[in-house]
Amino acid sequence: MDATRQRAEQAVTDVGSTVGRADELVGRAEGMVGRAEPLLADYEPALVALAPSLRRLAAEFDATEVDALITLIDRLPQVLGHLDDQVLPALKGLENVGTDVHDLVDTVQDMRQIVKGFPGSRLFRRRGAEEIAEDEAREGAGG
């Protein structure tokens, strides 16, 4: 009977120990839930809105696309640096291209009027047109 009583006392002690560990775990879980609840409340609307897109994204992505996305993210600082240092300044320089082209057209028109005023300019234009036509005919036959 003593052996049975000892085993019973040991079982009660083990149960007490188990209850103590369970109480500790429940306390830790309550602390985690207390910290997580406000975060979940803050992010829940965004997560609910993003859920369909994230499910679709997860279904569509394969490993090579993930690798490519990681590579892109890794290169973004370099890409943005080139964009800021080279591309945007070049685009800014294009602001005056329209004005410059217009000025060039005006200059060519002025030169055309001057050339038209030379005696015999009509002959030069006709001979130039004939030479251009001959060159084009040769290129057409050779091509």
User: How would you state the average pLDDT, rounded?
Assistant: 87
- As a percent range, the share of helical residues equals over 70%
DSSP E strands, number: 0
Number of helices: 4
> Biggest β-sheet: count, sense, barrel?
none
What would you note in describing this structure?
By secondary structure, the chain is mainly alpha-helical. It has a domain at 1-60. 92% of the residues lie in helices and 0% in strands. It is rod-shaped. It starts with a helix and ends with a helix. The mean pLDDT is 87.
In short:
92% of the residues lie in helices and 0% in strands. It is an all-alpha fold and 143 residues long.
Structural descriptors:
143 residues; mainly alpha; 92% helix; 0% strand; rod-shaped
Topology readout:
Elements: H1 2-60, H2 63-93, H3 97-116, H4 121-142
